[in-house]
Write a structure and sequence with these properties.
Mean pLDDT: 83
Shape: elongated
Number of domains: 1
CATH architecture: Orthogonal Bundle
CATH topology: Multidrug-efflux Transporter Regulator, Chain: A, Domain 2
Oligomer: single chain
Number of helices: 4
Strand order of the largest sheet: 1-3-2
CATH class: Mainly Alpha
């Protein structure tokens, strides 16, 4: 994420750019209260801290989902299915070297 002073209010478009999402998607998050916003001079503004909080929570959800999918793969033995005629994959062969 780009460096933005904590007390600077962001436009909705700038917040969408920082989150790498389309503005209509961010509008939905704002309407749902997922990210806090306020009105100033008839325009919606977003605080950088609120964007960072959402981004951190979203990253945690993504990591948890990836870990769960990996666990399912390991439980079902999908990691041992050869890909394009190659040798069988194992959990050890999928992990990067330490």
């Amino acid at each position: 994420m780009a460096v933005v002073p904590q007390n600077t209010e962001l436009t909705v478009q700038r917040a969408a750019e920082l989150l790498n999402v389309f503005r209509p998607w961010l509008d939905g998050l704002l309407e749902a209260g997922e990210i806090e916003s306020q009105r100033a001079n008839g325009r919606r503004r977003v605080l950088p801290g609120s964007v960072r909080e959402y981004q951190g929570a979203d990253d945690a959800r993504r990591r948890a989902a990836a870990e769960e999918l990996t666990r399912w793969d390991e439980e079902m033995g999908l990691l041992r299915v050869p890909l394009l005629g190659g040798p069988p994959l194992t959990p050890q062969s999928r992990r990067p070297p330490a």
